[in-house]
Write a structure and sequence with these properties.
It is a single chain. By secondary structure, the protein is mainly alpha-helical. It has one domain. It has 6 helices and no strands.
Length: 106
């Protein structure tokens, strides 16, 4: 189950796929961030990322960095059942959780 504070920052703040009312399922990035960052740390990341997120360069799907993120977060994603256009061929943007994890790495 999602936490309102985490959902506001990760989903509403960064995810182009966000739709209210989907509290029963979460992306792999959401789970990773919830399990590894406090809400305070996530708020700090959110505030500090406002200037950089539009310029964020995402790794290519064949890169080692993407493969690592895929293993850490994407393979554990509740939405992966339907496939992931970002992970498969970059024909869609990544989820908010993926973006935030990338910002952490940068």
């Amino acid at each position: 189950m999602k936490s309102k504070g985490y959902s506001e920052l990760i989903c509403r703040g960064f995810c182009k796929f966000y739709k209210p009312g989907k509290e029963a399922i979460q992306c792999g990035g959401y789970s990773f961030l919830r399990d590894n960052l406090t809400i305070g740390e996530l708020r700090y990341l959110y505030k500090s990322s406002q200037q950089t997120r539009d310029r964020l360069e995402l790794p290519g799907t064949g890169s080692g960095e993407h493969k690592t993120l895929e293993g850490l977060i994407c393979r554990k994603c509740d939405f992966l059942v339907d496939g992931c256009d970002f992970m498969d061929n970059r024909s869609a943007p990544p989820c908010g959780g993926y973006i935030l994890v990338r910002l952490l790495l940068d």
